[in-house]
Amino acid sequence: MFAFRASLGKTEKSGRIMRVLGLDPGLRNLGWGVIEARGAGLRHIANGTCRTGSGELATRLLELHEQLSAVVARWAPDEAAVEKTFVNRDAAGTLKLGQARAIALLVPAQAGLPVGEYAPNAVKKAVVGAGHAEKSQIAHMLALQFPGVKPDSADAADALAVALAHHFHRRTGARYTAALEAAQAKAARP
């Protein structure tokens, strides 16, 4: 099923389905959300949180890897998008977050998925229209986009926003590329 799903998504413009996995990395809680896009239409598929307990860092990273691998296997995304890590005052915490983010990048890459990376402000701007939007504004836009969907956690909500931002970025980028190619073709005509 995985190989079949992966082959479906590459031509979203022709009405085929593109399934996007959004990831909000964290060592204790790694949020994930899966959406499907068919042209401009969007549909929520699933969301959740990969959770680790306390203990050795290596064991917790392995738990994240196993849980996220199961998510990828079950929901068969075509592409993935990961939120970039911000640096905070706690260097040790930032390093651990970076290691969890590495798992979030590694698992989709192991599955052969293209992986987009987005800064938190870019996600907010894509979803809400303002790079410094509040969490409540993001939640409101998610509720409008996916009525009745209850995210598993705040991290899962953030992951859905990352998936949505990736979808918007892909659509905007595709329109820009098509317009540029059309302009170049027109300019090349005698």
Overview of the molecule:
Strands 3-2-1-4-5 form a five-stranded mixed sheet. 53% of the residues lie in helices and 20% in strands. It has helices at residues 2-8, 57-75, 91-110, 120-128, 135-145, 154-188; strands at residues 17-24, 29-38, 41-51, 79-83, 115-118. α2 packs parallel to α3 (91-110) and α4 (120-128) packs across α6 (154-188). The longest helix has 35 residues, at 154-188. The protein has 190 residues and is an alpha/beta fold. The protein is globular.
What is the arithmetic mean of pLDDT? 85
Architecture, according to CATH? Answer: 2-Layer Sandwich
Helical content stands at 40-55%
The secondary-structure class comes to alpha/beta
How many β-strand runs? Answer: 5
Distance between the termini: 49 Å
Q: What are its keywords?
A:
alpha/beta; 6 helices; 53% helix
